[in-house]
Amino acid sequence: MATAAAAEKRKPVFIKVEELKPGTNGHNLTVKILDSKPVPVPKPRHAPMSLSQRPARINECLVGDETGCIVFTARNEQVEMMNPGATIILRNAKIDMFKGSMRLAVDKWGRVEVAEPASFAVKETNNLSLVEYELVTVQA
What we know:
Blueprint lengths: L3 H4 L17 E15 L18 E8 L2 E8 L11 E12 L2 E5 L5 E4 L26
InterPro entries: NA-bd_OB-fold, OB_Ssb-like
Protein name: Single-stranded DNA binding protein Ssb-like OB fold domain-containing protein
Organism: Salix udensis
């Protein structure tokens, strides 16, 4: 039997960009968009494209807060919200690894929302996507 307290939704816990770590997920962040660039998507070579299979749109966006910045990969309908200078809220974001560096992404289980303009200045000197990670296996 669920109690009234358990039935209430948990308040989302918001973190800062500098707290992001490789291989983690479930992050909620408020970030400013610094830059947004389209990524060319190769056309599939196999079957002809039907009307329901529109080509994917992908933008790489530099986003951040007062603690640092990171590259956010915006997909399809998320691309329209990626206007430099805008403030967005990322809910249930995850860290994807791409060529050894971290990328922030929001899949179908998360949400991207345009927010009221934030008052913080983005710390561009701490770009987490420029840190290269190497997978190391530890022998037992």
